[in-house]
Amino acid sequence: MKNIWFVALSLCALPAGTMADNPKVSRAMVKTMEENMDQKFQSLWAENPVQVVGLTQGAYIPGYGAVFMSELNLATGPTISPFHPNISPDEVRRIHEKKVARLAQLKATMQQMLADSAKSMDPVPADEQIALGISFFYWNWENREGLPAQIVMHAPKKMLLTTKTPIPTDEF
């Protein structure tokens, strides 16, 4: 008889200890943020837009926070084809200059995206992180001097909601 009471109490206590502590971050909420980020990336430079190589992917990791990753080509350039068999040094220089010039605005946009995500994702606890990582696509003929392979920004949600200070940026 004692074993039955122990099993019954154990089963009743299990859901209360695990389900109540987890925030309710739905897949629909994460998907909405993914789509918003892709739209912002594509509207950055209307005259010559960024190429979103890989659609933004997001996930909520309990105990850490929300993480979003995307892959971008900051400026499209010429491609090798039968009608354009070689990339000229002038084309390489122009694409490189355009990509370098766009980095500052991209970083500012990423910071705004993090702040917007913090405001939109109510169930994420204030002490958990919101993170955004961008990997960059480069052709093998491109000059990559001064261009990162990846930029990662993250901060606790409470900081994103309460401060206007720049978010630390990691570039690899």
How would you portray this structure in words?
By secondary structure, this protein is α+β, with helices and mostly antiparallel strands. The protein has one domain (24-171). 41% of the residues lie in helices and 22% in strands. The chain has helices at residues 2-18, 27-42, 89-120, 157-162; strands at residues 51-61, 65-73, 129-136, 150-156, 169-171. It has a 5-stranded mixed beta sheet with strand order 1-2-3-4-5. Strand 2 (65-73), helix 3 and strand 3 (129-136) form a beta-alpha-beta unit. The longest helix is centred in the middle third of the chain and has 32 residues, at 89-120. The protein is elongated, with a radius of gyration of 22 Å.
Q: Which bin fits the share of residues in helices?
A: 40-55%
Order of helices and strands: HHEEHEEHE
Low-confidence parts = 3-20
Distance between the termini: 63 Å
The main sheet comes to: 5 strands, mixed
Q: Beta-strand level of the residues, as a percent range?
A: 15-25%
Overall average residue pLDDT: 87
Radius of gyration: 22 Å
Count of the separate structural domains: 1
Total number of strands: 5
